[in-house]
# Entry
Amino acid sequence: MSSRPAILIARNIFPEVVDKLRQHFEVDTNEADAPLTPAQLAERLQGKVGVLTTGSERVDAALLAACPQLKVVANIAVGYNNFDLPAITAAGVLASNTPDVLTETTADFGFALLMATARRLTESEHFLRAGQWNRWALDMFAGAEVNGSTLGILGMGRIGQAIARRGALGFNMNVIYHNRSRLNAATEAECKARYVDKAELLKSADHLILVLPYSAESHHAIGAAEIAQMKPTATLINIARGGIVDDAALAVALREKRIAAAGLDVFEGEPQVHPDLLTVPNIVLTPHIASATIATRKAMAHLAADNVIAFLTEGKTVTPLNPEVIGQG
Ligand code: GLV
# Structure
């Protein structure tokens, strides 16, 4: 029997990353890529000291209690609302995520979704594919202007800032933002973004993009009351997390044209999608792919692997979420 430590990769990842991990560990994989139930995850983690997770696997007190030998949980995502971080820290387990490597790619996608939504890209494509295009018309699929409009950003971390730069520098947009804490003056100037309160953001944005982390505090940050404060011509884009938008309220608002359109990459209870969102035309829907380029997804998987390797072989970390556990245990 090998004396090398054993780890689990909870979902299927790139073979080159598996090979890299196999240089150090006994590696259990999930090549079938079926999401594991909490019970299956706990079972597969028996005897393992590390795990690479995705947003589909929840790491909480119950899992940690069932897997007391676990030392490191590395999320292949920048968001980590699938982690109960206080419980992980209390268990003395190191947690990591994958910041930075996905910032620009995710900002690109946020902009793609914004433009597709404002310019009615998928709605018009469905029309064409359905054979309904039999004449051109001046107002056919006329959408909202992007260049020179007001871009509102809710959540101004790394990705929000990268979106601000695209809007200001690439599309001459007037960029306003709201965040729990205001950026310093130099960063605001570099992003050409102006801090406003949330009410002003909702009222003034022609395009409102959500880039804030999910938490109890941000649950339904955009619901019926907030949508009611937006312009009837506005578009709403969510590339952050499901649950930040009240999807049922959004479907009603879109149907009643209280805002012009929405673009969603994330959903409450995904991969389930609220059925009412599927029947409104003025929406662009994508399956949580904002960071999905081959290069970026590989970089994310490598970074998660590097966290596990650094911690289990040298007691070091690369992008820890709870560095206070280092040196414990
Ligand atoms: C994707 O949603 C991520 O958090 O990386």
Remarks:
- Residues 77-79, 102, 291 surround glyoxylic acid (CB under 6 Å).
- The radius of gyration is 22 Å.
- Residues 315 and 326 are 7 Å apart (CA to CA).
